[in-house]
Amino acid sequence: MKPHQILLCILSTFIVLGAVCAVFAGRSTVVRVPTLASVLGLSAATCAADSMLAAEYAVADGAVTADSTAVAVASDTTGTPAPSDTMAAPAVAPKPVELPQSLPQTKLHLPTFYAALQTSAARSVRIVHYGDSQIEEDRISMILRRRLQDRFGGGGVGLLPMVQTIPTYTAKQSLEQDGREVPNTFVRRYLAYGPSSMRLKGSNAYGPMAQVTYVTEPVDVQIELLRDRVPTYDYDRIRVFCSDSVTVRLVPDSLEHARRVMGAPLNDSTPSAEPMRQEMIVLATPQRSTTLQMGGKGYVYGISLETATGVQVDNIPMRGAAGTNFTAMSRGHFASYFRNTHTELVIMQFGGNAMPSIRSRAAVEKYVESMRQQIRYMMSAAGEASLLFIGPSDMITTVEGEQMSYPMLPYLDQALAAMVAEQGGAYYSLFRLMGGAGSMFSWRDKGLAGEDMIHFTRAGAKKVGEMLAKQLLEDYDSVVESQDTIVQ
Amino acid sequence: MFDFLKYDPTQPLLFTQFYFWAFFAIVYAGFTLIMQWGSVVESRKSRVKSHSSLSRLHARNIYLMAASWFFYYKTSGIFLLILAFITLSDWLIGQRIYRSASAGRQSRAKLWLALSVCVDLSLLFYFKYAYFFTNIFNGLFGTQAEVFDIFAYIGNGFSRDGRFMVDRIILPVGISFYIFQVISYSVDIYRGKIAPVRNLLDFGFYVSFFPQLVAGPIVRASEFVPQLYKPFFLTRRQFGIAVFWICNGLLKKIILSDYLAVNFIDRVFQSPMLFSGFENFFALLTYSMQVYADFSGYTDIAIGVALLMGFYLPKNFDSPYKSRNPQEFWRRWHQSLSRWLKSYVYIPLGGNRTLFGRPVSKLLSSNFNSMLTMLIGGLWHGASWNFVIWGGLNGVGMIVNKCWRALGEHWRYVLMTALAVAMVVARQLTRDTYALVNMVEVWVLILWVGTSIWYVGWLWGVRLPSSETQTVKPSNRVLLWVDNAWDVLQTFVFISFTRLFFRSASNLDPAIASREAWHTAKQMVHQIGCAWDNSIILPFIQEYKYVVLLFVAGMIIHWLPERFKQRYRLAFAALPLPLMVLAVAVVVLIAYQFITADMQPFIYFQF
After folding, report:
1. Nearest 5°: phi and psi at A298?
2. What predicted TM-score, i.e. pTM, was given to this entire model?
3. Do B7 and B154 fall into the same domain?
């Protein structure tokens, strides 16, 4: 064949495809055909910002829209390393995104918490961070913990489950019997979330971690703080939350300096004022690794590695949860935990798992109403503690063939913010701080979010943790500053 | 309009995007003009036809080199300077090698060759392995050294606006491919296999030919350079085959690779702990499909595009998952790299004759040199220990398989039984707590069952006929098929498992690649070995039905007999041109359906 014949074939193919696009684009719901404008890249940005909710999304506090993020992308000409040169799709150095370092987030109104922080030199101040899979592996909480402990003191990693089914970056756990490691299935776990087959029968006593472990025979729990990611400070006390019939022994005994038991003492048939027994073991010296011998038969709600003063941060991920199941758990257990651990801030980070099923305003309102109940429930359990709600991140889906943010996400973010404010909590809009609708593309390109454009990568989670810690510390400083000004 | 001419890292010219095909159409229009204009000139000046024909070829080569450089500029921006430097340096040194060798000065030719290889590898090491070696240095000496990009520093000196980042070294796209290509050029001249290319621009065209510039196949000078001086010639059937390869590549890349990656594989590799052992294992298997579809799809398109311009690129994949053992796999997978490694690493190391220059037994030299070659091949794929482990595992697989095949039936059974017993005991001793032990035990037990069945059959006198035998009884055909399927399955699972280390290390920022890759690999092994739950399998298949269907369909197509595939290729190539144009349009629309398909919802099966 001659080159001109081949060229004719190439051009014919373009013409046929162009004609199909011109005639059929948008007409068929079965076969998707792009418009000529979108093929030629002449159409407007396809992010959800141009959806029907754009106007509603244009919040007054100047949140950065996807378009402005795009401007930031285009204006920067420096580069970051291309990851590989071997794959078919040429690895291109992603352009750095002007990530939100100091985007306008209204100050987090957490008066009780800030006041408690001022007393952290003399006592322990605890933050309990509940969330969905975004906070698994202690990814976001560990940054928050480290930054606050750097500033206010404190050590340990807070509350841990007895069995570590999902490794974290901060602590390594294993079970042993007779000096040999045994699998996690050695003990039975019950969850308040996830599949119904893992629920407790006839009880809602899941404890503060929304999961509980049932011990039937003696087993050693080994816990070691890890140093490789964000090193954690040593702890000087261990607190075990369990039912009365469980025995706890520290190995070796010599590490134990003192012990205090709260709740019903052993062999006491009198009903306790506390639903959980707490064994607090004060250590002779600060530690990084611990072995606890658990005996008897009963439930273990969690093991806390902490210090007498400073800040403690618990990381409590609930895989797949939308945050609507707190009311199905015993309020007494939450209240007991919050009260006895001086919990001054409860963080709830949910919404992402609800988003795929939210397709209308009515669905948004239903979810928000459900969360209102959860927040009330948790606030009533937490007493005077402050509540911070972290909303869902930007998330991408496919709508009529185009990838964009979930159309209802901006509305959900706004509705949650309003509801949390009504309840007297503070709202941290991850969605807006990421850059708003469509910003997940930039986060993905920057290596901060995964290809599913739902979950953060480790680097992305670190970024979120840093942003949150910075916000809290800045707000704390401004509160202290204003107090000083009044005093003067 | 003119933005299209500017470098934009977010808009590289990818084979799967409209802009590449617009670029190709424009390039082809120019190509046609040169070829047609040349024909007219030749017919008018028939006396100087041969000279004019040569000029036309030079014009074509220069034109395509310019197009290729534009293509690379669009993909890599200022790194075009590296390509230009490599082109000039290897062209000049190639001349020196040839002159020295022709004058009988072998030692001087060797020095020039060493210089060429040093320059090429230095650039490769600088851009690709700086982080890797810095991390090793820091690990050994407890230092906190960081990379420093001297080129960025110099660039800032010129630009005076600090536009280049000195604390990061960016990997230029395709550098591993074109560096290997120019090394083959210098070595082939030294070995006397080819004469140097006389014209610098022709050489530049060979180095930068855009269809294969960023992802191969690695074209050796002896295969490509002669084509520079051959006139355009393409039969009607070849044209049809070229179009077939392009369509085939697009469908592979978009449907089998991208869809599987986005909707399943990437999610698992990003956060293995979110998924059960079965999901992690299935992700490994599907990743094998994805990486094949991605890489071979890209190569298919490259071969098709090059063929439309009258250039023949070597075949790069030969249904690799039909392989019955790791050696065969590496003969069928990324063939241009395997051949390159054999010619320029394995044989210079001593091949199956010598070890470090000393004659030793064939068994020792071939195994040692194979292992070393696989380790180097692993490191070529990426700068992380995971790639080295991946290469090493493949090397071990090849050696173990070679030794296994040399054993008699009795020994095979005894060894496999001993291994199975050892693994069962090891698992008992470790009480199911070591993921790797659990995984290996299950796999060894499966192998032991297969070996036992075969051994019992062998004791009963069942013998496998040679597959080359013309007269194979129908009952033996079944036996042959079962034996083949067993070997293919084992090889596929083994290769998929080794890719655990490969994929974990892919697409990572080089500054953190080693740590992150190892972490991901460990988590996946943990999940497969310690978090396996059979009750998840059925719901998983129901929820991820499109992912499972695509994987199964892809494997079935892959395993179709070559004769059958050849038949439908030729049938496509024989389509009338208008019908072929319509077929291409249909293929593009099908691919578009997958590009824009709804994303698979995220589902948790394990808590």
Report:
1. 165, -170
2. 0.81
3. yes
